[in-house]
Amino acid sequence: MDTRSDPSHVRGQTKLFRGRPIRSERSTEGQKPKWLKVRAPGSPKYLRLKRLVREQSLHTVCEEANCPNIGDCWHHGTATFMILGGFCTQACTYCNVEHGRPNPIDLAEPGRVAEAVRALELDYVVVTSVNRDDLADGGAREFAKTITATRSLSPHCQIETLIPDFAGKSESLNIVLEAQPDVLNHNLETVSRLYPYTRPGGNYVRALKVLEHASQHKPKLTTKSGLMVGLGESWDELLDALQDLRRVECDILTVGQYLRPSMAHLQVSRYYHPNEFEALKSIALEMGFGHVESGPLVRSSYHAHEQSNAFATATSVTERQDSHDS
């Protein structure tokens, strides 16, 4: 029996799933499994952050992508700021961010992001962007400027950058790396076979090379990537993608359920059961990922601070054990 294709026979997890069969639910438009239900946002902290985002004329991927966790994250005073405007030059079939002709670069945006981080007294922030294939550097310099501006006003704030692939240009990636983010995140998103249908402007191998280059150029940098499930992938294809990410020394992994933003977007192939996410987490940890966040509502920036801290703690423990063993 090939245990790779059956999450109920994950090595070391047979006992956990015995008598609790892994199951999934086929997509039914307008009907989602009960485990995907979330509270509508509206707490005072949520409203304060929303007001600040409006006042500073900022974009957040939380809003643009219709993230289901916006109420939870904003209630805890965390947000993922999206720089370089609200129009993406690519049109991924699963993404809710608008695509089209982007506006010129807003030169004051890095400063406004930095001011917002200071006003919110954040100790961890995620900065991402739309794809800007119209720019020679893909927007890399604006990432670097945002990192620098944020550090100048909030020197103790950790900064995670969730970057595009910069069309595979290593010189653009190096601009971001030299600005020294604490975490470099580039999402693989899906399996190799589905790239032509889901990310026609992307490239599976190129995405892996972004993470590989980051690990080689800055060996001490924490790298991170994320996958969505429910796009039509098989279990074996998912495991192959996990192995590919480990081959390029990706440290932190996130896995979450794809949710269809509208009827114009790619249909959900199926909803994964929470047990399946637990199985994927166990497999990924056995493969060597330093930290794994896997669940129906997990997104790459969800509890990003906790993810980074958990990885740092695990790394510290491993280093101490290695030192003791030597």
Roughly how many Å is the radius of gyration? 19 Å
Domain count, please report it: 1
Q: State the separation between the terminal residues, measured CA to CA.
A: 39 Å
Silhouette: globular
Output the strand order for the largest sheet: 2-3-4-5-6-7-8-10
Helix content: 25-40%
* Top-tier CATH class: Alpha Beta
Structural class, by secondary structure, is alpha/beta
Percentage of residues in DSSP E strands: 5-15%
**CATH fold-type name:** TIM Barrel
Number of strands: 10
Reported for the largest beta sheet, the result is:
8 strands, mixed
CATH-derived architecture: Alpha-Beta Barrel
Helix/strand order, N-terminal first: HEHEHHEHEHEHEHHEHEEHEH
User: Unreliable stretches, pLDDT < 50, 5 or more residues?
Assistant: 1-21
Number of helices: 12
Mean pLDDT, to the nearest integer, reads 84
Q: CATH H level: which superfamily?
A: Aldolase class I
Structural descriptors:
disordered N terminus; TIM Barrel; 326 residues; 10 strands; alpha/beta; two-stranded antiparallel sheet
Report on the architecture of this protein.
This protein is of the alpha/beta class. It has a single domain, classed as Alpha-Beta Barrel (TIM Barrel). 39% of the residues lie in helices and 13% in strands. Helix 5 runs parallel beside helix 6 and helix 7 packs across helix 9.
